[in-house]
Amino acid sequence: MTDSTLVWFRNDLRLIDNPALIEACDSGNPIHFIYILDDSGKHSRPLGGAQRWWLHHSLAHLAEEISKRGGRLDLYRGDPEAILPHIVRDYGSNLIVWNRRYHAADIACDSAIKAKLEAEGHSVKSFNGTLIREPWTLASKTGGAFKVFTPFWRAARENHTAPAPLHAPKQFAASSKQPSHSALSLSDLALLPTKPNWAGKPNWAKGMAGSWVPGEKGALATLDTFIDNGFAGYSENRNRPDMPSTSRLSPYLRFGEISINYVWHASEMAVQSGRTSASSEDLRVFQSELGWREFSYYLLYHQPDISKINVQRRFDDFSWQNDPSSFQAWCRGQTGYPIVDAGMRELWQTGFMHNRVRMIVASFLIKHLRIDWRQGETWFWDTLLDADPASNPASWQWVAGSGADAAPFFRIFNPMLQGEKFDPEADYVRHYVPELARLSSKYIHAPWKASPVELAAAGIKLGSTYPRPIVDHDTARNSALAAFKALTLYT
């Protein structure tokens, strides 16, 4: 066996602040870099179409950056538990490193691989490259798992100081060993989506390409843009989809192209140094939003089936409606409620949706249409660039009221009022629902209230150029409240 180190990239596709990578460099051995696409469904949840698009470009960027430093990224597909030991033998690596994962199936996979490799005489080391605090380090005062965000986040923040991020290596020790015989090209992974075919108008793939730059460089540039242009006033403006007031870092965090520690440290340093005029309250609220990501992973660790099963099992008896036509209208942004339709079209065109609008569209699906939250979660999983196995289902369960830290059942967003409050000039709606663009701000969030003359002047024919509401708000709200109360979930 020749001395070499193998770095197994997973959801950590970066060179800066990557503890597993630094360990590999510190070993002094030649380094092999690999990525394994596991779409078998045995361990990790297979990626949705939007995530696969992002992964394709992220891997291309990572491979380029590794190559610049004298290394090579080799790609594989399959069950890591079955193929990684063979890859290790082919390379003759004596040290294998990776950053940890937190779903039970992934943990079991990693544990099995580690046991097998160590039994064969290899050394295996794993690191925290994903979270501020790993789930098993936090417990409530009674010793159990936290079920509510606020005490969880208080405990997670206690005595936490973000360390300075680890620098990216400038050069890698080259290895003359050729790839394993089963290594693939990036095109062999077939990550670019072809089904469903998002080639309509507007073209989904072009919309994403025009909105995002996957990879570590894109992550760092996005963070810089946020600190310089969106951070100041974040605590007040983060709910405004018509303003550039959110970080847009979520896809980069999902694929680990930037570390949570780097974001935390950079945001603190920006406020302390005066680089930004963001206030301490802006920083606190921003960090709290990062905390929700932490809490979601904490829930995933303790509730690995969170994408399938209600955390509050009494919710299993909720009277969901089977309504394929309404679900399809929701997916396509044709509900007749402009803020809902704008959000769903933003998602379809760009692979992203503003967080406030995510809550609005989720509430509409669950409480206006009474369609099972799992249908919405699955749609988001396939179309959101940032959908991850923790935040996506945890957020849907929060809106549904079935989660650990659930929203009150009577919190049913009024889409008209939400639009008026958070998109007051309707710039967001006009951008994504252009058929309403000429309607006055007074009526644009409820176009059915405009007179026939005003609609005609704006070129709108309800039921033709833009749909009428597929449900009546008051009727739907009352039906949802009755259904929730019937569960006697809340006393």
Structural class by secondary-structure content: mainly alpha
**Major sheet, described briefly?**
5 strands, parallel
Rg from Cα: 24 Å
Taken as a percent bin, the fraction of beta residues is: 5-15%
Write the H/E string, N to C: EHEHEHEHEHHHHHHHHHHHHHHHH
Overall tally of domains: 3
CATH topology of the largest domain: DNA Cyclobutane Dipyrimidine Photolyase, subunit A, domain 3
CATH class of the largest domain: Mainly Alpha
- The parts where pLDDT drops under 50 for at least 5 residues are 197-202
- Roughly what percent helix? 40-55%
Question: What is the tally of beta strands?
Answer: 5
- Trace the largest sheet across and list its strands: 3-2-1-4-5
Mean pLDDT: 93
What count of helical segments does DSSP give?
20
Categorize the overall geometry. Answer: globular
CATH superfamily of the largest domain: DNA Cyclobutane Dipyrimidine Photolyase, subunit A, domain 3
CATH architecture of the largest domain: Orthogonal Bundle
The N- and C-terminal alpha carbons lie at a distance of 65 Å
Describe this protein with a few key phrases.
single chain, 491 residues, mainly alpha, Rossmann fold, Serine Threonine Protein Phosphatase 5, Tetratricopeptide repeat, DNA Cyclobutane Dipyrimidine Photolyase, subunit A, domain 3, 3 domains, 5-stranded parallel sheet, 20 helices, 46% helix, globular
